[in-house]
Specification:
Elements: H1 4-14, E1 23-29, E2 37-41, H2 48-64, E3 67-73, H3 78-91, E4 95-98, H4 103-115, E5 120-123, E6 135-137, H5 140-154, E7 159-165, H6 171-184, E8 190-197, H7 202-215, E9 221-224, H8 227-240, E10 247-251, H9 255-263, E11 268-271, H10 274-291, E12 298-299, E13 303-306, H11 310-318
Parallel strand pairs: 2-3, 2-4, 4-5, 5-6, 6-12, 7-8, 7-9, 9-10, 10-11
Antiparallel strand pairs: 1-3, 11-13
Helix pairs in contact: 2-10, 3-4, 5-6, 7-8, 8-9, 9-11
């Protein structure tokens, strides 16, 4: 294995926290020092959604006998994510899986790893224009389009809409927003009145959405583009009691979001199968490294949850099944 001894020395010297004061590194699965080592770099290891991805990555590690390092900043921090990737390159890991929330900063790191002979795949967030070998995740623009169509149906084709995102400038957010806009453009009586970039701190996020709702008393629809804003948006509508007039459609199957659907505050949410976004990169990198099998991108799909099937997903959650 490439530079395995150096990797182990680095791990011993720097310990479990090796890149940034707020970042975490967590190793899992195989104990064999000769096992294939794959580092999975996620953009925010502190959020609940990321833990579902992690569970998929660790399941693949166990299945194939790989050493998998789950690393990344706590709270989105591109500089720290770059540091984690740099450390993995220096350590000479066998493979890298990266969620790319900032192509300008991370594409050069992906290319650097590839040029160093380390195969790289992306997951959850794509890296267009990079040398990555494959992408495992949702077609984000299509998911935004489906979201917009569902929202328009709940709004009966008329009304004002706010779009919210934790970071409206991020490539994943722009892709989803483009999809929502494309769908809503098919309804001439629907108007997008505001795009709110909330930031990622929970109270700040909630306040930004609450203030946007207060500033738009005649609002008819709310499109939230990620898991955290979907939870916050449903919570704001539930507390304000406006969910009978403001139709809310979001993303991901977080427990709070499912509860908000059950309560009627959120009308629908779309899953991107985060478990498979962790499982597939590790599995396919392992097979590529050990057998040379060609890598190809895989779409993890779009799954809808609304009042008609929310009880099914709440039961799965109670049974301990990963849903995300």
């Amino acid at each position: 294995m490439r530079k395995k001894t150096l990797f182990l020395v680095l791990m011993l010297c720097f310990g479990i926290l090796i890149a940034g004061a707020n970042g975490t590194q967590e190793a899992g699965s195989a104990s064999d020092s000769d096992a294939i080592t794959i580092t999975v770099v996620y953009h925010d290891t502190g959020i609940e959604f990321g833990q579902v991805i992690k569970s998929g990555a660790m399941a693949a590690a166990k299945e194939f006998g790989a050493n998998v390092n789950w690393v990344g900043p706590i709270g989105i921090n591109v500089d720290e994510q770059v540091n984690f990737i740099e450390n993995a390159i220096t350590a000479g890991v066998d493979g890298l899986a990266i969620s790319n929330v900032n192509a300008e900063a991370l594409n050069p790191m992906i290319d650097k790893a590839m040029d160093a002979g380390i195969p790289v795949v992306t997951f959850n967030s794509e890296a267009p224009g990079s040398k990555r070998l494959a992408f495992y995740g949702q077609d984000l623009q299509q998911s935004g389009y489906v979201q917009g169509q569902i929202l328009a149906e709940y709004m009966k084709g008329t009304g004002k809409v706010i779009i919210t995102s934790g970071d409206a400038s991020a490539s994943w957010s722009q892709d989803r927003e483009a999809g929502v806009r494309k769908a809503l453009a098919e309804y001439p009586d629907i108007e997008i009145v505001q795009v709110v970039s909330t930031g990622w701190e929970e109270q700040q996020m909630y306040a930004a959405i609450e203030n946007a709702l207060l500033a738009n008393p005649d609002l008819g629809g709310l499109a939230t583009l990620g898991a955290p804003t979907t939870m916050a948006g449903g919570r704001a509508l539930l507390r304000s009691g406006r969910f009978d007039k403001v139709m809310h459609v979001g993303h991901d199957f977080m427990p709070e979001t499912l509860d908000n659907i059950k309560a009627g505050a959120t009308k629908a949410t779309l899953s991107q199968n985060p478990y498979m976004q962790g499982y597939l990169p590790v599995k396919n990198l392992y097979l590529y490294i050990t057998t040379g099998v060609k890598l190809k991108s895989e779409d993890t799909g779009i799954v809808r949850c609304d009042a008609s099937n929310v009880d099914t997903y709440l039961q799965k959650l109670e049974d301990g099944e990963p849903i995300g």
